[in-house]
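Anyone able to model this chain together with FE3-S4 cluster?
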Amino acid sequence: MEIIVAENAGFCFGVKRALDLVARAARDRSRPVHTLGPLIHNPQEIARLESLGVHHAESLDEIPGGAVVLSAHGVDPAVEAEARARGLQVIDATCPFVRRAHRHIRTLAERGYAVVILGDPGHREVGGLAARAGGRAHIVTSAADAQALPVQKRYGLVVQTTQRSETLRQVAGALAERCAELRVFNTICEATVARQDSARELAERVDVMIVVGGRNSANTARLREICAATGTPTHHLEVAQELEPQWLASATRVGVTAGASTPEWIIGQVVERLRTLGDESAQA
Ligand code: F3S
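re: yes, here you go
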């Protein structure tokens, strides 16, 4: 059985940067370090950070002092201001691509555009984006949502960094019919596009696709959707132990891809287990 790992898979620039900032903060043992929310959407990597003394808090109230790390997804500026007001040292790991989306939203709001965000409601990144529009943004997940928006003079569209380009095109098309003027900022990040293109291309030439990443990871969920849309049986797992031998029955080529928050060591364990299962079925 041949195992092929997608050309672009696993940690992206923004996640590596966030982890480097946290590792540096953890080396200084003079004060506690907490991340506000999970630093990245991967429970196994969060557990590894915990073992290095980096704790995870869901709100500022759970942080007694020391340093607070803002995740790569970004936060509401009011939360950052509150952290500083409480005397916490703020380590800002917001990905520069998310920051770019923040800037576009602020500009649109200042210039009087009704802001529309294509993104997963409830996702931290989308919460941070909406906050930049003063809480007045419309959050949509599909063209149908956009079609239901009121007619406006001017709409401005910004996208959660991990969305699909195809969905962006559909939503922009629907919005164009709801206003006289539409500005679109394609803020889907390059790492996302590269991972999605590689996953699609690989899924089209294998018998089974394995998508590795946190179940709470938006970009991993998109990869699973993209692979499944090719018609190739696709399975999403967080760790190697979840691999089911029957998924591989009669497969000669298995593709592996992984979300931008999936560490190399987990991808390695999945590939290793695939190899073992492949050898076992060859000997059977
Ligand atoms: Fe940044 Fe894109 Fe990664 S927005 S955190 S480089 S998926």
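The pocket of FE3-S4 cluster is lined by residues 12-15, 72, 95, 97-98, 161-162, 189, 191-192, 219, 260 (CB under 6 Å).
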